[in-house]
Amino acid sequence: MRDLPPAFAAHLADGVTTLCRCWSLRRRDGTSLGFTDHDRDLTFAGLVHAARTGLDAAEASAEAGFAVSGGDVAGALSSLGLTEADIAGGLYDGASVETWLVDWTNPETRLLLDIGTIGEIRREDGAFVAELRGVAACLDAEIGRTYRATCGADLGDARCRVDVSAWQATGRVLDLPQPATLRVSLGKSVADGLFSGGRLVWTGGANAGLAADLRLQAGDTVELWETPARRVAQGDTFTLTAGCDKRLATCRDRFANAVNFQGFPHMPGNDAVLRAVPGSEPVLDGGSYFR
Questions:
Q1: Is 274 helix (H, G, I), strand (E, B) or coil?
Q2: Extents of the domains making up the chain
Q3: 6-140 has CATH 2.30.110 classification
Q4: Which residues are in coiled coils (predicted)?
Q5: What is the reported pTM?
């Protein structure tokens, strides 16, 4: 059972309440934003919670045990609140959100309802619905190593140890044949497919600072998995990082880094379970494959 702050409990006991919801949002880049479904701005904890953002609580849920609880917050995209370009650019991915129930006549009288993070954001016709995930969502995160054939490290991280600076190329945009297809000029000659599955980081233009995943790279053509959040113009600059499909053959032949491979390439798959031991009857008898 939740203990209510004395001032908040006294306000509820009055019978007539003046309550609204507020959301305190903190992005991973350190930017803090406040929103409220009240009709005027409210300030508490040093943060202005802006009204007129079109934000409203759409749905909330609570689960017993370790099930992930959370809710939705819906609103309109506007210059006073969240913008389409910022959402598409991933600026709000994983942002922390505090949900408050606030007495709008005295914002210091408030109750913290939940702490969570922003999950999926759905956008359509100038509006959005953001999923708020409760703290139990952290239990779904992969921690530690997993037993699988492919590598569990990311190219260039502390376990991989590849120097990614040797596997990067700078370039600029020459043309945009399709929304997610770029014709580019690279600063050095590279083999076709080297950057397929890799990463593009914009260093100039409207998308500067944002990153995108590459679908493929062939010659002077680069295809992205998603259309860039903001308009791409001729001359916009970027840096490409090579792709890695996390197979042992790629780690060995492309990066000469098999000694740091973080997978189990010789683990048996489903075919090993179903096939018979060589030289035996077509049944599995528990014998060795190698004798």
A1: helix
A2: 6-140, 164-260
A3: yes
A4: none
A5: 0.66
